[in-house]
Amino acid sequence: GYHGAIYIIGDRFSGKTFFTHYAINKYLPNSPVYKISPSPEGSVSLKNFRTKFAQAFDEKGSYEEKISKAKKGSVIILDEFELWWERSTDGFTVADELIRIINEYGSRYLFVINMNSYAYGILNSVRNFESYALNVIHCGPFKAEQLKEAVLLRHNAGGMKLEYKGTVQEK
Asked: Measured between alpha carbons, how far is 22 from 114 in angstroms, rounded to an integer?
């Protein structure tokens, strides 16, 4: 089977998270999905990363046990990965852990990693992230009409009507 990760790269507000969820819902609708998000302030702590990672799984056991018990074919999303890295002596600790788990579990699970273009450029040049990639998808900036369509598409998935300034949107 396939082995590696899909990187979704783009600037802030380029739709990386939207694209990730849209694609997974469309092409892998029956796959279990685990989403790992960093703390808003970011962290290069391996302990913090492992805690957040383990919290995403409903299994009992250690960090490694939880990862290994997930159903084969699961999707693991690492959102805003740039917040797990910094230019410092210890700044690559989490990136090195990600490479390790992609190497160890990349044939069992699909890893989808979202990050900004700047962080990806540095991580790729220092840790050769591209060599662990099934694909690298670059998201460009959204035009206003595209943003409106994306918001409505995401909103309509919930089956509710959107009301703005007294006008109800039907579809």
From this structure: 14
